[in-house]
Design a protein that fits this description.
single chain, 256 residues, mainly alpha, Arc Repressor Mutant, subunit A, Four Helix Bundle (Hemerythrin (Met), subunit A), 2 domains, two-stranded antiparallel sheet, 12 helices, 2 strands, transcription regulation, Transcriptional regulator, GntR family, DNA-binding transcription factor activity
């Protein structure tokens, strides 16, 4: 998969484990990815500190701080006498941005389904609330972002930035601070969606009418239409990503 044009804006920065390139961040990222990928399964006891320090070329203090971060994400727990153990996946904080990034580094179709189920649970209702509460200046900002999308629809790299901001603006315009606080998590979900569809052939002109319909519904204060337009957008995006995943699986089968 090609390097995503949004990586400099967010995806790679988010995937740096704890927002940086330090030894501490490297340890969190590599060990976290190993756990997510099954290298260390639920119930497994991690190797002794000496072995982990040698494997990752870090000091005990760096290891200790890194394990604290992973513990805070619900992934591991330290037990007296038995060592540090990987917790069951059901106990992980799956909405943690790092966990989302690690999980979708090599996604399966089930992961894609889960991602879009999450987005469908939030974004259509956010669109309806935006239609009810957004003020004229906020609607004008959403319209400005749509104009940028229309101007860049033939360039996937240029299109991705305003597309991301379009969706985040709708969350911020709901008038609900709790939903607005979800924008960071939704941003990661959107970046993942963009990355998964990176090698889709063609451009984004097919997505413009769906975004126009959403803006029209918000402008008209039509909550039902806004909800339906947001859902249609998500269904189209999921179909695109499913095609990418299926194509990738077919290529792997052809090579085997």
């Amino acid at each position: 998969m090609n390097h995503h044009p949004l990586d400099p804006l967010g995806y790679t920065a988010l995937s740096e484990g704890t927002r940086g390139g330090s030894l501490h961040a490297m340890l969190v990222r590599r060990l976290g990815q190993m756990i997510v990928s099954g290298g260390f399964a639920a119930g497994d006891v991690l190797p002794p500190a000496e072995e982990l320090c040698r494997r990752f070329e870090v000091t005990r203090s760096v290891l200790r701080e890194g394990l604290k971060v992973l513990s805070g994400k619900g992934m591991i727990e330290a037990r007296q006498k038995t060592g540090t153990r990987v917790r069951p996946r059901a106990e992980w904080n799956h909405l943690d941005p790092d966990l989302l990034i690690w999980r979708f580094a090599a996604p399966k179709l089930d992961d894609v389904v889960a991602l879009f189920e999450l987005r469908r649970a939030i974004e259509p209702e956010a669109a309806a609330l935006c239609a009810r509460r957004a003020d004229p200046a906020q609607i004008a900002e959403i319209a400005r972002l749509l104009a940028q999308m229309e101007a860049t629809a033939e360039d996937n790299a240029a299109f991705a930035g305003p597309d991301l901001q379009f969706h985040l603006a709708i969350l911020r315009c709901t008038g609900n601070d709790l939903i607005g606080s979800l924008s960071g998590m939704i941003e990661v979900a959107l970046l993942i969606s963009f990355r998964l569809s990176d090698d889709m052939a063609g451009d984004q002109r097919h997505a413009i009418p769906l975004h126009r319909a959403l803006l029209a519904a918000i402008t008209a204060r039509d909550e039902t239409a806004a909800r339906a337009a947001a859902l249609a957008l998500l269904e189209g995006a999921e179909a695109d990503v499913r095609r990418v995943i299926n194509r990738s699986l077919e290529r792997k089968e052809d090579r085997s």
